[in-house]
Amino acid sequence: MTSGFIKIHRRIQDWEWYDDANTFRSFLHCLFQANWKPKKWRGTTIERGSFFTSYANFGEKLGLSVQQARTSLNKLKSTGEVTVNATGKGLLVTCLLYTSPS
User: Fold this and answer.
1) Tens digit of pLDDT for each residue in 26-56?
2) DSSP string of 73-96, one letter each residue
3) Closest CA to 11 of 72, 94, 97
């Protein structure tokens, strides 16, 4: 488990996915899972703001089905919050608006 915190502005209440429970939780999960510094995983460097997962693992951690996990990540992709790239090792999820600590 990684220690630390993330800051979320109150304006998130105006965000288009705020009232979509699965997508909102998926977004928070992405922020919590994202590396805060580059890290090696199975011979690959995972950059800050990114993490590896699978749809099954992502859904399991949130109590979602594989289809619900895929749908939520697709919604986040469609509005530019994340990218999801399938690789031979799983899904590389990158939070596009991940910023450096203040």
Assistant:
1) 999 999 999 989 999 888 899 999 999 999 9
2) HHHHHHTTSEEEEEETTEEEEEET
3) 97
Select from 20, 86, 91, 23 the least CA-distant residue to 57: 91
User: Which residue in this structure is represented by tokens 């994340």?
Assistant: 82
Sheet of strand 82-87, all strands in order from the earlier edge strand to the far edge: 50-53, 90-95, 82-87
Burial class (CB in 10 A: 0-12, 13-18, 19+), 76: buried
Q: Is the pLDDT of residue 74 over 90?
A: yes
HSE of 10 in the Cβ direction (CA atoms, 13 Å)?
0
The rounded distance, in Å, linking the Cα atoms of 87 and 81 is: 20
Cα 23 to Cα 18: distance, rounded to the nearest angstrom: 8
